[in-house]
Amino acid sequence: MTLRKLLEKLSDSETHGDTSVSISSLTCDSRAVQPGALFFALRGVQADGHRYIEKAVAAGAAAVILEDAASAPAGIPWVRVADGRAAMGRIAALFNGDPTAAKPLIGITGTNGKTTTTYLIEAILAAAGQPAAVLGTISYRFGTTTIQASHTTPESTDLQRAFRQLADAGAEAFVMEVSSHALEQKRVDGCQFDIGIFSNLTRDHLDYHGTMENYLESKSRLFSDLLTPSEEKPRRRAAINMDDPYGEEIARRAACPVVTFGIQGHCDVRPTGVTSSINGIRATMVTPAGEFEFTSRLLGRFNLSNILAAAAAGVALELPLSAIKYGIENHSTVPGRMERVENREGVTCLVDYAHTGDALENVLSTLQEIATGRIITLFGCGGDRDNGKRPIMGRVAATMSDLAIVTSDNPRTEEPADILRQIRSGIINMPPLPQGEGRGEGWVIREYRPDELTGGFADKGFILVENRREAIRLAINLAHPGDIVLLAGKGHEDYQIIGTVKHHFYDREEAAASFTEKAA
Q1: C-beta of residue 66 within 8 angstroms of C-beta of residue 6
Q2: Are strands 280-287 and 403-406 parallel, antiparallel or unpaired?
Q3: 52-79 pLDDT, tens digit each
């Protein structure tokens, strides 16, 4: 494809040199430049791509997109644009044949619930005869085609290439998780969204965004900037969770009509007659298109919200209610989301990705409702990430569990012991609560030493165990029949990052091995 053709959708570009040059690939990484590539010189968080233009040209770049004309190369065409990331998204879409222009694209953004909601929508679309590709935290996949996920939402060049590959594999629709980083960095510019879903907004990624206001601004871009009705997509809709405090503000900013959903209030999509148990959820779904009863194997209020989000997307796409019902009821288990580890000890062991205070509170609220025994919660917090949530997660786990085991998550380049101490501070500095509030009698949180738990535990408390493998074995060994063990934070991840090295580590495998050892 020629450079001239790729510039057709750029109205604010300034071209220099021969635009009839042929382009064979796109990249913003000078190390990946091959002969014939179009190189995007982007200003990144840690580096300025303009510094690598000379290296890109030496590697065979055919042309360069840049923002600063002072860095313009000699001898090859170059194009100055005001916003290199936005230009890269639009050019990447065109280079790959604009794969989302003719197929439905549903984007889900929010702090929690995105992955489960994508699986539910995938099942609904399949029931409606529109087999969908899913792009998310776990992978980008369709049928037997799987592309490993390096980020929740990759760079626009990789993203549009993945859309093309999945469409060529037979996908009739796309469902994708849209991260706040991707919206801020305009990785999804060039995507032709039909539906944008807002799940919720709670504290996360403040190491990157700085403030909740900035975090909100990033999330709202999906609705204010990328859902404007267009010639290709004239019926764009936003599906907004009105149970969330930020829902009304997101709805106000939306550039298209809004479909509201929520458990509370008179939303467009809402449940009635809800019953919840260890076996799942039963309710009646009320929508503008009619009502239907459904049952789901998913657990808890937060999963009911995910079900409503998926149903709202189905309604916005004008899918049959029968397909929405079938998709909800036949949705498969999501890896690392309240995923059971089977055992013969009579213990309910669940692996979940909850890695924020709000997500952990949602999971534990659900478990409190269905628990017949004790709740043992194991969790940690990632290193080199927002440290403000560490004491918050400590308070949540200690308040809502019978025993909280604080351990390592992905410590990365931080000292694991330092992370554990910050979590501990949130527990030991909690204000006293009224007698009987929370699980257990009164408000006495005991800090255990390892030697104090050899015979089990009777008092509500917590313990610090830095090694995650040892912590999981402790949790399993302490559990009695009827107890619930929650392994939180890593979910589907099958690795642990210590320093800068990624080691194989999978909570499911470790728990299964612990149960085997216990039974021996």
Answers
A1: no
A2: unpaired
A3: 999 999 999 999 999 999 999 999 999 9
Domains within the chain, CATH numbers bracketed: 3-95 (3.40.1390.10), 105-329 (3.40.1190.10), 339-519 (3.90.190.20)
Question: What confidence score (pLDDT) does residue 246 get?
Answer: 92
Closest of 441, 457, 401, 447 to residue 424, by C-alpha? 447
Least confident of 150-164, 327-341, 505-519: 150-164
The runs of H, that is alpha helices, within 169-283 are 180-184, 206-209, 212-224, 247-253
Residues 119 and 138: their CA atoms lie apart, in Å, by 11
The region, left, alpha or beta by phi > 0 then psi within -120 to 50, assigned to residue 336 is: left
Side-chain-side CA neighbours of 213 within 13 Å: the count stands at: 0
CA distance 302 to 231: 36
Distance CA 416, CA 283 (A): 44
State the pLDDT confidence band at 99, using cuts at 50, 70 and 90: very high
Contacts of 191 (CB under 8 A, 6+ apart): 89, 93, 100, 105, 107, 159, 226
Q: Assign residue 494 a region (left: φ > 0; alpha: ψ between -120 and 50; beta: otherwise).
A: alpha
Indicate if the alpha-carbon torsion angle 91, 94, 96, 102 is positive or negative. Answer: positive
Task: Please spell the DSSP secondary structure of 167-186, one letter per residue.
Answer: HHTT-SEEEEE--HHHHHTT
The letter for the amino acid at 293 is E
- Residue 151: pLDDT band with limits 50, 70, 90: low
Across the range 172-178, mean pLDDT stands at 96
- CA-to-CA separations, 510 to 12, 382, 494, in angstroms, rounded: 54, 19, 10
- Closest CA relative to residue 242, chosen from 270, 215, 223: 270
pLDDT, mean of residues 238-254? 95
Q: How many other β-carbons are positioned within 10 Å of the β-carbon of residue 398?
A: 24
This prediction's pTM? 0.81
Give the number of C-alpha atoms closer than 13 A to the C-alpha of residue 216, restricted to the C-beta side.
14
Q: How far apart are CA 364 and CA 159, in angstroms?
A: 35
Q: What is the DSSP string of 72-94?
A: PPSSS-EEE-S-HHHHHHHHHHH
Q: Residue 25: helix, strand or coil by DSSP?
A: strand
SS3 assignment, position 250 = helix
Strand partners, 431: none
User: Residue 482: phi, psi to the nearest 5?
Assistant: 95, -15
Q: What is the pLDDT of residue 219?
A: 85
The pLDDT tens digits for 408-465 are 999 999 999 999 999 999 999 876 545 444 444 445 689 999 899 998 999 999 999 9
C-alpha pair distances (Å), 120 with each of 115, 312, 475: 9, 11, 31
CA angle 50, 43, 193 (to 5 degrees): 125
Does residue 380 surpass a pLDDT of 60?
yes
